[in-house]
Amino acid sequence: MERPPRLLCSELRLQGRVCEVSLSGAALCWREAGQSGRRWGSAGVYGPLKAAGSHCVPVCEIIAVQETEEDSPSTDVGKWQKVPQNPSSSNQHSFTVSYVERTLKHRWRCSEVTLHCTDRKLCLQWVQAIREQLALLTIRPKRLLVYINPYGGKQRGKRIYEQKVAPIFSRASISTDVIVTERANHARDHLKTEADLKKYDGVVCVGGDGMFSEIMHGLISRTQCDAGVDQNRPDEELISCGLRIGIIPAGSTDCICYATVGSNDPVTSALHIIVGDSQPMDVCSVHHHDTFLRYSVSLLGYGFYGDMLTDSERKRWMGPARYDISGVKTFLSHRYYEGTISFLPADGTVSTPRDKIQCRSGCNICQMPSLVESTYKAEDSISEAETKDTWQVIRGKFLAINAACMSCACPRSPKGLSPSAHLADGTADLILVRKCSRIDFLRHLLRHTNKDDQFDHPFVEVYRVRQFRFTPRYQETDSELELREVGAGSSKHFFTQICREHPACGCTPTQSSWNCDGEILPHAAIQVR
Ligand SMILES: Nc1ncnc2c1ncn2[C@@H]1O[C@H](COP(=O)(O)OP(=O)(O)OP(=O)(O)O)[C@@H](O)[C@H]1O
Ligand SMILES: CCCCCCCCCCCCC/C=C/[C@@H](O)[C@H](CO)NC(=O)CCCCC
Ligand SMILES: [Ca+2]
């Protein structure tokens, strides 16, 4: 690869040693003078390169550069200082570069290097040259609208933002308007109707998955409203939102942050926001007949996760521990639910839920342009007979029905509900856990926390789908019930009829609720695409 031309090259001092420092359009590099270390880094190098006293930081990972103020006698550019003869006094003219340092477990930190110049003119030349390169990075946000949920997770959202995030945003010269929410749905409503979105390059969510969901709903609804798109129509093609959402994790599960960034660390998230990273995400719409219910990006869970959430909402005061208590309680109740799932499978030649290919930034599968288009084609313009895409129907008794648009990796389950799910491939993984013994279900759950395959059980099925529908048993149509009861005597059909009309009579299990990204849906019968 051709090396980018050097824009500036000088001998500067770093911690008392003379270093050769160079800046190109791709990277800032420094190495001890006279060292025959590796060559200067080239474009496309990720993270600072360190070899035998040589360091390279890609320009796209420089956070900021500042003339170091401590010993500077004057900040007035027009007032020239005498060039010191003694190298030790050259400390007076230095500049500090803050940059991204990658550490373990996908965490990023803000590191600094201070380089000392022989005179102020040179120092200012360096500061200006680096700033000029940073100004070329137009994907970086300059103005952000920040929403803080002060009650998410352990109620630390405000502190996390003020102590860990605001100082780095300010170092990166990002201006912010900060709103601390005063009630649930405050952020959603503000985005939907009030916020002047033209003023901002992005929205920042300080909170958990529920807070992200609020902000996503606000932005999607605002975009559809402005474009005259009716969200109640399940087959409506939605308009993409122009603004990105950055997530500063301060919730209980934080799976949307963890699955997109690789960690639930506020500083890492802040640095990703500053460098202008972006990651597209699948969003599925959930309807009940012709009524729009919600969008989902992480988990849509019926049965186990629905019941657990319903129970945990009453224990919100406990913070994240509520999920452990309600999880155990729901596990012990061992309730199962009957119903019918119909789904449109995704193209199995592209990827499958058990192929062990993990979605990472720049994922090849998510970048295939045909994926989302073919979703529309298959359902809208090509008849089922012309494609191999036909709806499949499964009826049964389930402990859990989960649909994951993304892996749902989180600190509780670092590989997630569906480890090979893709972030932006237009599909979700539908996981059906059929009625089984408690011990088998426990084995399945425990596999979410270790390396074993949670799908490798005879009572678990997983399908990659583009759409699905669910009907709980007591709402099934007569034809669905007749299909189910082929071979059953007429007396059974008679009792089924009674139980459908009186679902709480005790001889059939009642229905569960859907957990939609941590919110309870008001209907059990849903259509998802
Ligand atoms: N000021 C507020 N007062 C009360 N509730 C709020 C406020 N602001 C936001 N909320 C609501 O709080 C709920 C939970 O928030 P959040 O997602 O941040 O935390 P969490 O539920 O603890 O974490 P997770 O969703 O990751 O499990 C959201 O549904 C959101 O709508
Ligand atoms: C006996 C040991 C059992 C261990 C089982 C661990 C299984 C963990 C699977 C993790 C799945 C996370 C799915 C994410 C769901 C979020 O949209 C939602 C909102 O934040 N969180 C929950 O519903 C809360 C989900 C809480 C999961 C515990
Ligand atoms: Ca997906």
From TrEMBL:
It holds the Pfam family PH_CERK. This is Ceramide kinase. Residues 70-92 are annotated as: Disordered. SUPFAM superfamilies: NAD kinase/diacylglycerol kinase-like (SSF111331). GO terms for molecular function: ceramide kinase activity. GO terms for cellular component: membrane. GO terms for biological process: ceramide metabolic process. Residues 83-92 have a biased composition (Polar residues). Residues 139-290 form the DAGKc domain. InterPro entries: ATP-NAD_kinase_N, CERK_C, CERK_PH, Diacylglycerol_kinase_cat_dom, Lipid_Phosphate_FormReg, NAD/diacylglycerol_kinase_sf.
